[in-house]
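Module 6 notes. Inverse folding takes a fixed backbone as the condition and produces residue identities as the prediction. Think of it as a translation problem where the source language is geometry and the target language is the twenty amino acids. Below is one complete input and output pair. Work through it position by position during the lab.
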């Protein structure tokens, strides 16, 4: 439950530092000026899933520039000099091979074809499910890469002893979120969490006594349902529809939850939202349904420029502030040499909750206080979006919940605020069925002002121009957005 004050080794000392507008502008310029060349990747035997994700990652400016300009072997949490080693990492092997690949990719000339065999070998060594020549899932491959890089580059060499934090009476949502985030980062933070890391909240509200409780979760990407039942019969589906489906308040099964205040089980609902938006927002569309054994080949409209997620961000100017710790912009170290988020207060806060089951992709840094995070595992991890009886029942319950009082007002972020605007830099696409198909990538070659893109299918790369601000695609699977 959300908790008492504690003091433990590795938890940053109190303090809050605001980021200057100059440093925020530095990040913006870095993203705007980044360019890459068009190149292909060799298919090593049904490895199009990996090639598609690697092409997208090369198009993520802060990640590419970190490995090009800032990476050092001393960044690796290998245990060689500290006596500690990340239990979930690869001992630095993935970080080193990814660095070598990124160097080659950023030096490639147009039309060149690179070989990603070294990266794949590390994947096979530490995740045998990627061996062989069967079709694999691109989203699962991306999660292995990000999780593995996070653990290899974890700044916390010796993790503090786990302490379950409990409620602190009278603490606000802002205070709870900041305390929990800081505790989370004290148990594991890296350049990967700097770039892709965000924070979700899950509010549970009792419609009888008005009691609200919160749970928090970190994320590296969001897995969003595709709301075919409710939307597609009326109009085309948009990415905003998917975000609304993810964050809509829904009624809880009365047998699954009891209000901790009044002990009643009727009229309880929950909603989710983004509390700390990431620098790079990765969105995974849940097109595969394990129960119905089929793929949703429906068009989803998504913006190439100007994705505004302000509607889904809890209005919070402190936790939601932009951070730039990739290049030490706006961050500080405490006396133990641990990097602190410039917007966070110390000592996290956490509430256990078994109801965060709506498509959150758990990360390797998930074990910072919750045992119920949903990890990404094969296709069963992104069940949803189908038209099974369970889906229909869930939709019926949502409609019932919408007819009752929907709880306290949401403190939404301002939709016209540039703080929550993102631009697309890459899309991993899947054409085919659940049992077979082919992955390709569509990636931006320059800054968001540049209309130059490339459609890449393994070793074949074709230049294209995208002059429109939006696109509609039935094959879009994983989308990479960079914050302005």
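Target side of the pair, the amino acids:
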């Amino acid at each position: 439950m959300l908790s008492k004050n504690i003091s433990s080794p590795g938890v940053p000392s109190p303090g809050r530092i605001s980021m200057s507008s100059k440093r925020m502008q530095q990040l913006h310029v870095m993203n705007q000026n980044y360019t890459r060349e068009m190149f292909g990747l060799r298919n090593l035997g049904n490895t199009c899933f990996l090639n598609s994700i690697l092409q997208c990652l090369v198009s993520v400016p802060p990640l590419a520039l970190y490995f090009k300009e800032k990476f050092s072997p001393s960044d690796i949490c290998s245990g060689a000099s500290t006596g500690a080693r990340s239990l979930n990492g690869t001992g630095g092997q993935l970080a080193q091979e990814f660095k070598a690949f990124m160097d080659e990719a950023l030096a490639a000339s147009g039309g060149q074809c690179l070989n990603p065999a070294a990266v794949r070998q590390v994947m096979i060594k530490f995740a045998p499910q990627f061996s062989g020549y069967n079709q694999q899932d691109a989203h699962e491959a991306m999660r292995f890469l990000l999780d593995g890089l996070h653990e290899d580059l974890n700044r916390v060499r010796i993790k503090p002893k786990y302490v379950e934090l409990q409620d602190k009476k009278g603490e606000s949502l802002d205070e709870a979120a900041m305390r929990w985030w800081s505790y989370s980062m004290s148990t594991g933070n890296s350049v990967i969490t700097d770039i892709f890391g965000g924070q979700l909240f899950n509010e549970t509200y009792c419609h009888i006594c008005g009691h609200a409780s919160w749970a928090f979760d970190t994320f590296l990407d969001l897995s969003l349902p595709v709301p075919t039942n409710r939307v597609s019969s009326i109009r085309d589906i948009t990415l905003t529809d998917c975000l609304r489906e993810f964050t809509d308040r829904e009624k809880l099964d009365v047998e699954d939850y009891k209000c901790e205040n009044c002990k009643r089980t009727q009229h309880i609902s929950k909603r989710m939202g983004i509390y700390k938006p990431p620098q790079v927002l990765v969105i995974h569309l849940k097109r595969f349904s394990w129960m119905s054994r089929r793929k949703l080949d429906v068009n989803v409209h998504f913006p190439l420029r100007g994705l505004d997620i302000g509607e889904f961000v809890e209005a919070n100017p402190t936790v939601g502030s932009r951070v730039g710790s990739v290049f030490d912009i706006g961050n500080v170290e405490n006396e133990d040499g641990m990097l602190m988020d410039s917007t966070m207060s110390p000592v996290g806060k956490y509430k256990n909750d078994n109801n965060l089951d709506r498509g959150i992709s758990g990360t390797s840094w998930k074990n910072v206080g919750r045992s119920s995070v949903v990890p990404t595992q094969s296709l069963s991890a992104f069940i949803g979006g189908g038209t099974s009886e369970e889906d229909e029942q869930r939709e019926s319950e949502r409609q019932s919940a919408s007819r009752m009082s929907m709880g306290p007002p949401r403190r939404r972020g301002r939709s016209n605020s540039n703080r929550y605007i993102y631009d697309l830099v890459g899309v991993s696409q899947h054409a085919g069925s659940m049992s077979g198909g082919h992955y390709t990538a569509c990636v931006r070659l320059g800054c968001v002002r540049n209309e130059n893109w490339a459609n890449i299918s393994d070793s074949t790369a074709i230049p294209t121009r995208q002059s429109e601000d939006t696109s509609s695609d039935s094959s879009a699977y994983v989308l990479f957005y960079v914050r302005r």
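Reference fact for the lab report: Residues 21-483 form a domain with the Cathepsin B; Chain A fold (CATH 3.90.70.10).
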